[in-house]
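Dear colleague,

Thank you for sharing your sequence with our group. We've completed the structure prediction you requested, and as agreed, I am returning the results in plain text so they can be pasted directly into your records. Please verify that the sequence below matches your submission; if there's any discrepancy, let me know and we will rerun it promptly.
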Amino acid sequence: MTGRVPPLVVAPSRPSGRDRVPDGSLVATSSAKEVARAWENFAAGEDIETGVRPEILASWYRCRDRYEVDRTLDVAPGAGGDEAQGIDNGVIFTALGGLGALAGQAVESDGAVVTVTDGDGRVLGSWGDPSAQRRAELHNLAPWSSWSEECTGTNGMGTSLEVSGPVTVTGPEHWCEAFHQWACAGISIRDVVTGAPVASINISRWNASLSKLVPPWLTKAVACVEQEIYRRAIYEADKVIAEFTKKSAQAGGSFMAMDRGGNVIAANEAAVAMLGLAGETPIVAGATEPAERWTPDVTGLRDVVRWAMDRAKGTTGWSGYAHLPVCPGEEPTPLTMRSVVDSNHVVGMLCMFGVQEGEAYEGNADETIGPLPRCVIGMRNDRLVLLAPSEIRYAEADRNIVWLITERGRIQAATRGLENVERSLTSHGFRRVHRRFLVNLRRVAEIERGIKGELFLIMDSRAHEFVPVSRRHATDLRRMLGV
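Please find the predicted C-alpha cells below.
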C-alpha cells in the first residue's frame, strides 16, 4: 500500500442540534423519524420521490423491485463460493486488510467496527471494538457473510458496490428494519479495466452517528489501494501489447488485442479499417493507458468477452469463437479469441476476424430475464426522479455515467453503464444506434443525411436535438423505421 492515509475520526466531535436526543438513540432524531415514515410507505408498495436522499431511495427501489429483499431479514445470509475475484487480487486484498486492521485499532474507543468485503459483498475481515463486533455478529456482520444489496438490502457495503464514491447509510435508511439502529459508511474499490467492484471497506457504529469526516477518509484510504489496481492495469496492457506485437506479423487479416473489459488495446491496419477506428484513438501503436482504449461498437461483443474470460480461466492457449455483426449489412463475421495469460491469470485476448477455431460460443439462452421496471430511476440535484420509459427521448453515455434526455430535462440515470440501461429499456422500444447513444424509436421526429451519407436522428426539432447513427447500426435502423 502506497500513499498516506489521514487519521480516522469516527465519533462526531460535538453532538449538537437535531442529532442530540435524550436517549441517545439513532432512530429518535426528527430526520430519522421522517425517513422511517417514508420507509414504511415505500415498503408498503407506494412510489415516493421525496423525504429520502436520492442514492438511498434508488437503493430501496433496487431492493424492493429488482432484488425482492425481505425487509424483515435480521441476519445476513452466509456467502456462497470460495473463489476470489477473477483478476489477481492478492496484493489488493492484502493492502485493504492492512488498512482495515489499522482502522480497526483507531475506532476501538468509538464503539465501531471496520469490515472489508470482496466485490460480491462477502465479508473477508472484521476489526474494531470487541463489544461492537459481538453485537454485529448477532446480525452476521462477520467474515463469510454476504452483505451485497441483493442479499441484505441497503447497507454501507452492499450499496457502495452499486455506486461510485463513499456511501453513508444511517438508521432507517437501511432496507431491513433489524439494521435501523446502525450507522455505516462504505466505499468500493473498482477495477480500472472493467469498472466492476473488486472490494469495499466499511465502518459501522451501533446506535450512534458517524463523523462527517468518515466519507473523506474512506476516499483517501481507497485511493492508496487503487494505485495498485492502476499499476496492475498498465502491467497487463504491456503484456498484451507485447503478445500482440509478436503475433501480428503472422496474422493474415484483421487482428486486434483487447483487455479484460473488452476494450481494444492494439489493432493492425486491417482491423482499424474494418471497425472504423481511424483517427479516433492511439490503438495502432498500443494504448497502455486505460483512458486511451477504445470500446468497439459491435453488438454482443462484451458478452462474448465475458464468456471467453470465464472459459479460459488462466489456461494458456485457450481459444474460442463467436459470430458477430461486425460489418453492417453483411452476415455475422467469425471472431476467434485466444487468451493472453500471465501468472495463471487471463490478462487479455488476441482477436482474429474471419477465423473460426476452438470452443463455440453458445450465447445467453439460459440467462433469466427479470421483471420489467415499473419506472426508470434518475437523479437530479438532491432529488430522485421517477420516469416512465415513454418520457425518455434518448440516453447518452459519458463513460460509465448515463444521461437520460427527457421532457423534464437532462437527468442522470441511477443505473451505471449504457449496456445496463439498454437491457432495461429494449422491451420499451429503445435501440442502440451508436456506442454512446440509445434512442426511443417512438420519439424520432426526423432523419437527416449528412454530406458523406451518415445519418442523424432529430429527436426534438425545436431544440435541434441531433443523435448520430454509426454506420454499423444504420441498416438495421432504416429497417426498423421503414425508411
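Summary note from our side: Residues 380-481 form a domain with the OB fold (Dihydrolipoamide Acetyltransferase, E2P) fold (CATH 2.40.50.1020).

Kind regards,
the structure core
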